[in-house]
Amino acid sequence: MKKSLLLFVISICAFVVKAQVPAGYYNSAQGLSGYNLKSELNTIITNGHTAQSYGDLWNAYYNSDVDNYYENDGSLLDIYSENPTGTDSYNFNLGNDQCGNYNGEGSCYNREHLFPKSWFNDQSPMYTDIHHIYPTDGYVNGQRSNFSFGEVSNPSWTSQNGTKKGNNSYNFSGAYNGTVFEPIDEFKGDVARVYFYMATRYESQIDGWENNTTNSDVALNGTSTQVYEDWFLAMLLEWHNSDPVSQKEIDRNNAAYNFQGNRNPFIDNPQYVAQVWGTPDTQAPTAPTNLNYNSLTDSSVNLTWNAATDNVGVVSYQIEQDGVEIATISATNTTYSATNLTPETTYDFEVFALDAYGNISNASNMLTVTTLEAAEVIFAEDFNDCQNIQFTPVSELSSQDWQCQTEFGEDNTGCFQMNSYSEGNQVPSIDWLITTNSINLDNYTQEKLSFYTVATYGNSELQLLYSTDYNATNAPSNATWTAVPNLTIPQHPSGNANEVVFEFDDIDISSISGDVYFAFKYDTSNGEEATRWTVDSFIMEGEQDLSNTNKNQLQFSIYPNPSNGVLNITIPAAKGFSYAIYDLNGRLLQQNTNSTQKISVENLASGLYLLRVSAEGKTATKKLIIN
User: Fold this and answer.
1) Which of 71, 286, 316, 438 is deepest in the core (most CB within 10 A)?
2) Per-residue model confidence as pLDDT tens digits over 342-381
3) Exposed, middle or buried by CB within 10 Å (0-12, 13-18, 19+), for 529?
């Protein structure tokens, strides 16, 4: 089943790419497989290949290697400096930043033979073949030298984007253990398909390259068929499968075709890789054992298991939840956190081991887990209705009170803001935002607090405090206030106009007990530069303390939660119940009396609500999530 899914995905990629391949380009390869297919592909991509000069590559890069995919800024796309998930440490401008001399990263870019030119003695047409010659940072290219690609656990050198050099740690029986070079995951498939191209385009020559250098001997096996050593081929297959063809590769392949007249068939038809090299290893790994769990919550569980073994090497684990694959992780891990689970729901988990050739083990033991009951919402305020806020602003110094806003909060919803700088002036200020009523924490355990805040300008601090002796008729400073434990709200790091978001989730406040007021305190009375502080999404949750629960506390469960249609209510020994659903500001949205223990919520919009249920003189409230 898993192999079929992979081939399905690959087939989709091939379909998308084929729309840009010249009509009939691969017709003669139809129906072939194995090394016969590779030989026919050699004929196809050798015909039409017109070698260009080495200098022509500089101009070709204007079409083949422009960043239209990550920053999308028209700079050079360099696989040794590109940060695919954030801002690049540096960029190269095409033409202006050609090497040249370099003395560190970011100096200039040159032409990197991904398949080192010393491996083929600098001969043509390999020397100028754009399919394997990428523009890259000159200094990083120098670090790579002519080392084979591999995988590195303990690097001796790492580039700014995470490319590594060090001893090979690829998990394969008999694998080379000397110095190798590892690109980041984003480009491993690109590299693998370059090497499959080289094995095919130069099929008639590559069997003689094995002993040209020590490092070519590391990867090449001296044949024109398999071409690569077992460990290196296994790694290329893994990289190819784990990093599918990207739009960047498709566009580069088209540009290379325009430049020199031939294509990389393994970009156009990724399934050719499996059809050519097949599955040399047919032995599946052993099954993972002792699948177990820890850290169970109402919405997540941490899975653990004992590692599988394989005659060649386990490279990954697949995790299934209720018979559906939910994740594939590296074999370096034997733990996985399953999240987004539904409270009070039973799940079955299994784990499978895979080797580099796609062989899949039998399933581990099946683990059945039932998630915990959802934590109850003790207090919640989203500040979306300024007429019904469960906080009260109190100004002890200045008139710059906290203000309710209809925007600027999380996801640009309502919020409360405070700033002692207004209309061109800053004034000393001591201002509080205090829960209007005290909150009784005695009937709960494992209480946790979450909220969202934003700092803009200045360096004044914001504190979150609590008090058990505050009297709303007196000034807040007359009460005893204590800092909420396990929490520090940072100051704005630079003091400029940039908004800095601080999100606090599941702060442990279980040490606080009794009837408690919570307050945000804003203080610029000592001359601090005023910060504009924004507060939103203040939520307190906890588990019922059954040993100290009031006799009127109802015990009930609801499922599914999250829900998108009908809720089922389970109340032991109750024949009927009444219920009410509120938004987080306490507005009543829906209520009724039921005897069927089902509630329709189809008319509620997606979001967080409070469900209050009463039966036989008892009442309780739980958090309700609507998808």
Assistant:
1) 316
2) 887 889 999 999 876 778 999 999 999 988 777 778 888 9
3) middle
> Residue 245 falls within a domain, yes or no?
yes
Helix (H, G, I), strand (E, B) or coil at 190: helix
More confident: 518 or 608: 518
Radius of gyration from C-alpha coordinates of the chain: 32
Q: Is residue 381 domain-shared with residue 365, that is, in the same domain? A: no
Domain boundary among 370, 394, 423: 370
Flag whether 131 is in a domain: yes
Provide the CATH number for the domain around residue 569: 2.60.40.1930
Instruction: Provide DSSP, 509-547.
Output: -TT--SEEEEEEEEE-TT-PPPPEEEEEEEEEEEEE-TT
pLDDT in tens, 576-604: 788 888 877 667 788 888 767 788 888 88
Question: Residue 495: CB partners within 8 Å, gap ≥ 6?
Answer: 457, 458, 459, 529
Confidence of residue 283 (pLDDT cuts 50, 70, 90): confident
Paired residues of 613 in beta bridges: 579, 620
Which pTM was predicted? 0.52
Q: Please give the residue range of the domain that contains residue 333.
A: 289-370
Residue 296, pLDDT score: 85
Q: Give the rounded percent of residues in the chain with a pLDDT score beyond 70.
A: 94
Q: How many CB atoms lie within 10 A of CB 499?
A: 13
Give CA–CA dist 31/14, Å, rounded: 16
The 3-class SS string of 226-285 reads CCECHHHHHHHHHHHHHCCCCHHHHHHHHHHHHHHCCCCHHHHCCCHHHHHHCCCCCCCC
Tokens of 367: 């683990």
**How do residues 498-556 score in pLDDT, each as one tens digit?**
999 999 998 999 999 999 999 999 999 998 999 999 999 999 988 776 554 444 567 77
CB-based contact 402:431 (threshold 8 Å): yes
- Do 412 and 435 form a contact (C-beta atoms < 8 A)? no
Q: Are residues 259 and 324 in the same domain?
A: no
Report the C-alpha gap between 286 and 595 in whole angstroms.
53
What pLDDT does 1 receive? 25
Do residues 47 and 196 both lie within one domain?
Answer: yes
CB-count exposure of residue 450 (10 Å: 0-12, 13-18, 19+): middle
Residue type at 335? T
Give the mean pLDDT of 319-347. Answer: 90
For 325-389, the DSSP string reads: EEEEEETT--EEEE-SPPTT-EEEEEEEEEETT--BPPP---EEEEPPPPPEEEEEE----TTS-
Instruction: Kindly state whether residues 401 and 351 are assigned to the same domain.
Output: no
Residue 24 pLDDT exceeds 70: yes
DSSP for 290-336 reads EEEEE---SS-EEEEEEPP--SS-EEEEEEEETTEEEEEEETT--EE
Residues 200 and 310 in one domain: no
Q: Are residues 363 and 381 in the same domain?
A: no
Inside any domain, residue 552: no
Q: How many CB atoms lie within 10 A of CB 293?
A: 16
Is residue 89 included in any domain, yes or no?
A: yes
Looking at the fold, whether 331 and 398 belong to one and the same domain comes out as no
On whether both 159 and 93 belong to a single domain, the answer is yes
- Looking at 544, 568, 602, the residue that finishes a domain is 544
Q: Which of 124, 125, 126, 108 is nearest to 116 (CA)?
A: 126
CATH code, domain with 537: 2.60.120.200
How many domains would you assign to the chain?
Answer: 4
